[in-house]
Amino acid sequence: MRMNKNSKHTSLRLSRRGFLTTLTAASVAFLMSIWQRCTVKKNHRPRIEGASHQRGHRLWKKDFPSPDQTREADVLIVGAGVSAWSAARILSKQGVSVTLLELESMVGGNSSSGANSTGKYPLGAHYLPIPNPECTALLEFLKEAGIVLNVDAEGRVELNDYDVCFAPESRLLIHGYWQQGLLPRVGVPKEDTAEIVRFLQYTDSLKHLRGKDKKYVFAIPLDESSQDEEWLALDQITFGEWCKQQGYSSSYLHWYLSYCCRDDYGAGIDTVSAWAGLHYFACRKGMAKNTGESNVLTWPEGNARLVQELEKQSKASVFPNQLVYQVEKTQQGVQVESFDFISQRSIRWKANQVILATPMFITNKILSQQSSYTGLPLPSYSPWLVANLVVQNDLQRAGAPLSWDNVLYDSDCLGYIYAQHQDIKRFQDKITLTYYHPLDHLQTAAARKEAIQNTPEQWAEIVFQNLSKAHPDIRLLCDSISVWIWGHGMAQPKPGAIWGELRKQRQQPIDPSIFFAHSDLSGISIFEEAFYQGIRAANQLLHARS
Amino acid sequence: MARQWLLLVSVLVVATCGLIYELVAGTLASYLLGDSVTQFSTIIGVYLFSMGVGSYFSKYIDRNLIGWFIQIELLVGLVGGISSTLLFVLFDAVSSFRLLLYFLVFLTGSLVGLEIPLLMRILQDRFAFKDLVSQIFTFDYLGALLASLVFPLLLVPYLGLIKTSYFFGILNIVVALIVVYKFGNETSWSFYLKTLAWFILALLLAGFFYAESIQSYAENSVYPDKIIYARSSPYQRVVITKSPREWRLFLNGNLQFSSRDEYRYHEALVHPGLGYARKGKALVLGGGDGMALREILQYPDLDSVTLVDLDPLVTQLFKRNEMLSGLNDSSLWNPKVQLINQDAFVWIKKEQQAYDFVAVDFPDPSNYSIGKLYSTTFYKELYRVLKDSGVAIIQSTSPYVAPNSFWCIDTTLRACGFFTLPYHVHVPSFGDWGFLLVSKKNIAPQEVRVPSTCRFLSDSMFPQLCYFPKDMSKRPTDINRLNNQSLVHYFEKEWSHLVP
Q1: Distance from CA of B162 to the nearest CA of A (A)
Q2: Given this structure, which CATH class describes domain B261-496?
Q3: Which residues in A lie closer than 8 A to residue B91 (C-beta atoms)?
Q4: What is the C-alpha separation between B228 and B4, in angstroms, rounded?
Q5: Of B349, B355, B252, B236, whose CA–CA distance to B307 is shortest?
Q6: A101-129 mean pLDDT
Q7: CB neighbours of residue A255 within 10 Å
């Protein structure tokens, strides 16, 4: 409440006393926590969540019983991630009856979420930048969801305050100190800072730059970007090579760029194309009335909130635990076969039209008869490790306080998100941290397979080792940990992946009855692209009907 | 031969412990006094110098070398073991903390400095000189390495500074005890040394296990008056002190009220608004001490009062303790009062009723978690639960100490559509304190009516309270939003001038 008038002296002493209290409490807690550590190991064994890779791998064997029942649907959508729901939403609005078949027991795909005693937490995608003014479909959806309150003539949005990331938004542990913000500042030499500023000024200048065809050079959705050859050429080299050409040599800048690319694309600057790398920095033009431009929309459960809104705005029936293993064109329409993990029986679906809202490597397995489509090469995928740790709310260290996004400089992992940061409550004694780690060092299928075979304890050890650089006592503070492995987390936008011929071919429907919707078709795994691909597929389908 | 090795091991232990004490002192000093470069550099200097002093004086010890060696080892353990407790307990009591700090470092250094030459002389007949020098210094420097590694990696994170000192004091004494029992026959002081060793060991063990109580003793010395109540809830540390003249409530060390002048604060928090609204439904957010309620309940036409305070420890204390409920006239027992222990933001977001009067009495916005309660998002909810004819009053920190913070709260409320009427009162315990009377239509200072029973406020003086002298006059500020928390930044900056 109020402070003492004489606080000059009192507060001075109290703050020191506070420090000493903490010290003593910490030392008292020591013996207890040793004991706790033993019990943590015993009682809170790390869990691996999610069954998708065991379930999904049955597609390779295809040892399913023959269908013993037949169901009918008008439009069947395979998958229940963002692109699937985005398509379902458009179709339901046009009065089309839609059925979704999902492999997992819950919907959401990469935007899934979980919950524990502390609240909800994300398992994958967890924020959305302020939408660009030209993304009218997205703005319309967000308005309907009550997240965007209104848009003015200049395209500036007013956002619902509860949905905008609360301050403090981010901090970076660098040279042993938590600095505010993610651009490396503390202990960074002047020349490096100058280079970082030069880079950001350059990418700012690209934001509103248009190519010869008058289109934005870097647009969202990226299909709307300029086809000016000069800029598309950037898709032929890696971002790392581009940096070298442009004389960007600062290791701090390289770390920052790699961090951003790993965060969005699951791979660093030596893997992704220069076009994709620059797109990350230059595509965002969103402006808001009640927040800064770099602020983001986020929720405790991450983008699962957006999925929930999409679901609410659709009138679709969902069948979870369904592994679709066969999609075939027939005389009457499309025949789909799925295996129900609950009843352990197969179902035959007869649909008029089908949208495959699945990642390409799954699509290839399902469409095995259509070799003209499945013969096309696949993108490389980054596996991801996402872990959720329930910890005592005692992570304060020198520097900036616990923020929404907490990033570790020069670490294999990206750091962690404090999801309940977005909660209005004042006190939380236990909190959930969501740890993100693209396993981009796993290049080959063999390495990925090996990684998948890691035990939960081995994964937990990797998490603890990385986090202990920031919090030496993380093992003591952690009550429980659950690990989520995304075997094929996201397609990597390697050189040639975005502006080669492949994406165009992949976006084409097979006859007018099998359509494709997934962020893989954009080449980068962000909400806006998945949302756009769903709408694109839905419009193709509606067009084929009329 | 084993006995010689034991002595060498004790060199290792003394060297390790000595450096640990030095590191503890350095760390403690840099935490307490700031400027870690200066602290560490001067402490290392004093420590090394005093080792030289100890070495020099070792030549004056002629007889009973083993006895002296053990005795000094015991002293190192004692001084080092209790050093951090001494520094911590005496931090507020002594006039020159630095003097005490350097004295302790000097004492430890001198004692450690005495040890090495003594040991060389004890062992001079048992080793060749070149072996002796090589062995002793090897162990000495090995100990230093060990100390410098375990200190930051294990001790500070896991044990804390106070327990670290005790722990190494105990280690010191244990080694000394072993030496006493092995070499007891070589000294005539055997009985005295054994007694002393056991005594010091008991003392250090007690210190190690009672660090908590030492802590609370130190707390006592921080508060000016006698502590009559001190307890921690999951949310805060609640301390009540009593002197012959007054009661004081502290939350997390910050004064909440003094019974001597709290009426000024609480009259100002309630009457300018409620004197205007007079009837209907009242709401208090925060204010679990029941003092604002006491003022509110003076209006007989009120239908009900809802009090939302986070901490049941505070509300129950002020409800059930006879002396404390005497201060608030048992307001928390009044049948018109509905008591809700919940986070105010969570509560107001779901609240569907509308109120005629709201008193908002939150802690000052000193951190991000409290800053949320001063944001546009919160005030929009407040706007929603306030009737069109309703009035709310918001405690808004000191416009004298923190003018930007005060006017930032004003700007934020205005951005949410409120009309504001800022005023400030002098509360001797706090200083010049600010409030904002907010409503959905403009209220002029002359329209404000307060009951004649007020001890401090009156109708005629209220307009004067609305006058802000130049040094705290209105200034442009940011709007405090959840996504920028500008107010917390203003507040930190402005109050830190007072807390160097």
Answers
A1: 7
A2: alpha beta
A3: 16
A4: 57
A5: B355
A6: 92
A7: 18
Chains A, B: CB pairs < 8 Å: 172
Domain map of chain B by residue range? 2-220, 222-255, 261-496
- What pLDDT is stored for residue A1 in this prediction? 42
| Furthest-apart CA atoms within chain B: distance in Å | 99
Mean pLDDT by 10 residues, chain B (500 residues): 75 85 81 67 90 91 86 90 80 67 91 87 82 84 86 76 86 87 79 88 87 61 70 80 84 86 96 91 95 95 96 92 89 96 94 97 90 95 96 96 97 97 95 96 94 94 96 95 92 74
Peptide bond into A320 cis (omega under 30): no
Burial of A144 (0-12, 13-18, 19+ CB in 10 A): middle
Q: For residues A388 and A433, what is the distance between their CA atoms, to the nearest angstrom?
A: 6
Whether A498 maps to a domain, the answer reads yes
Tell if the CB–CB gap between A17 and B159 is shorter than 8 Å: no
* Domain count of the fold of chain A: 1
3-class DSSP state of A135 = coil
Instruction: Quote the pLDDT of residue A43.
Output: 36
CB contact at 8 A, A260 and A280: yes
Please report residues of A whose CB lies closer than 8 A to that of B308. Answer: none
Residue B253: closest C-alpha in chain A: A14
Tokens 């951090």 label which residue? B84
Does some domain include residue A87?
A: yes
Mean predicted lDDT score pLDDT of chain A: 87
Judge whether A446 and A461 are in contact, CB under 8 Å: no
Burial class (CB in 10 A: 0-12, 13-18, 19+), A501: exposed
Judging contacts by C-beta atoms under 8 Å, the chain B residues touching residue A30 are 158-160, 163
Q: Which residues of chain B does A166 touch, with a Cβ-Cβ cutoff of 8 Å?
A: 368, 372, 482-483, 485
CB-CB under 8 Å, B485 with A168: yes
pLDDT reported for residue A27: 45
Which CATH number fits the domain that encloses residue A331?
Answer: 3.50.50.60
For A483-508, how does the pLDDT look when each residue is reduced to its tens digit (9 = 90+)? 888 888 889 999 999 998 888 888 89
Identify how many contiguous H helices and E strands chain A contains and give both numbers.
18, 21
Helices A82-93 and A527-545, packing angle to 10 deg? 40
B425: β partners: B433
Q: Do A30 and B158 touch (CB under 8 A)?
A: yes
Instruction: Give yes or no for a contact between A524 and A261, defined as CB atoms under 8 angstroms apart.
Output: no
A28, pLDDT greater than 60 = no
Q: What is the ipTM of this complex?
A: 0.79
Helix axes B36-57, B2-33, angle to 10 degrees: 140
Q: Please give the positions of B annotated as active site.
A: 361
Residue A40 pLDDT grade (very low, low, confident, very high; cuts 50, 70, 90): very low
Picking from B153, B235, B433, the nearest residue to A2 by CB comes out as B433
Whose structure tokens read 């023959």?
A66
Sequence-ordered list of residues with C-beta below 8 angstroms from that of B443, at least 6 positions apart, any chain: B276, B391, B419, B421, B437
Identify the residue whose tokens are 């998945």: A530
Q: Where are the alpha helices (DSSP H) in A81-160?
A: 82-93, 136-144
Quote the pLDDT of residue A7.
33
Is the CATH number 1.20.1250 carried by domain B2-220?
yes
For residue A507, the one-letter residue type is Q
Domain span holding position A530: 53-104+301-379+494-545
Q: Which two tokens stand for residue A160?
A: 């619902």
Domain contains A256: no
Could you tell me which residues come within 8 angstroms of residue B154 by beta carbon, excluding any fewer than 6 positions away? none
Give the one of B91, B369, B397 whose C-beta lies nearest to A426's C-beta.
B369
Strands B386-395 and B419-427, sheet pairing:
unpaired
Nearest to B147 by CA among B9, B255, B17: B17
Considering only the beta carbons, identify the residue of B32, B484, B499 that sits closest to A7.
B499
